[in-house]
Amino acid sequence: MIIAPSILSANINNLEEDIQKIEKSEAQYLHIDIMDGHFVPNLSFGPNIVQSLRKISTKVFDVHLMVENPDEWIEKFATAGADVIGVHYESSPHIYRTLTEIKKLGKQAEIVINPATPIGVIEEVLPIVDQVLVMTVNPGFGGQAFIENMLDKIAKLDDMKKKFGYQFKIEVDGGINEKTIQKCKKSGANIAVAGSYIFAGDIEDRVKKLNDVIED
């Protein structure tokens, strides 16, 4: 299972230092939340920050667009250094086209669904995506409690993946800690985004603890 530290919970005053700690850790991905103050209430990072981080990190950049009109931002973040670009089903009326554009730019395309969004609405894009991100909290804020009902959604998505032979990874984001990550893995998740848990202590140690519990 892939661990993806979310820099939304990093110390913004010492962001480079925290990134260097992630570089030394067992994490494979770096999860970067992009928030525009409209699709979700908060504001976060822009393409310039991603470009700066790309110079100091070798991790896979998993860029999660929590924005209105994601089509306006895809190329900017692709150019800035994103490897995976995630867009919300809820943010685009033409989500198939949006995901196709990501792939045309040579990036991995991810569809993201909020807790209240059923899996059925994304069935038609599952053959073309590289990842599906199931939000296990409501998007926009760090430190929220894991929504247990999302485990059923993860399991259903995993069943569909196996039934039709799809190759996408299943990612979870929100409320991830030593207990919830085990539940998510058991339900079929392949990638776990962790923010508050990792950055509340020693970064390398917290990543190792997550890796250890999913290997038991």
Automatic annotation (TrEMBL):
Its EC number is 5.1.3.1. Belongs to the ribulose-phosphate 3-epimerase family. Catalyzes the reversible epimerization of D-ribulose 5-phosphate to D-xylulose 5-phosphate. Its cofactor is Zn(2+); Co(2+); a divalent metal cation; Mn(2+). It comes from the Bacteria. InterPro entries: Aldolase_TIM (IPR013785), Ribul_P_3_epim (IPR026019), Ribul_P_3_epim-like (IPR000056), RibuloseP-bd_barrel (IPR011060). One of its GO terms (biological process) is pentose-phosphate shunt. CDD domains: RPE. Binds 1 divalent metal cation per subunit. NCBIfam families: PRK05581.1-4 (NF004076), rpe (TIGR01163). Pathway: Carbohydrate degradation. Gene3D superfamilies: Aldolase class I (3.20.20.70). GO terms for cellular component: cytoplasm. A divalent metal cation binds at residues 31, 33, 64, 173. This is Ribulose-phosphate 3-epimerase. Substrate binds at residues 6, 64, 140-143, 173-175, 195-196. Pfam families: Ribul_P_3_epim. It comes from Ligilactobacillus hayakitensis DSM 18933 = JCM 14209.
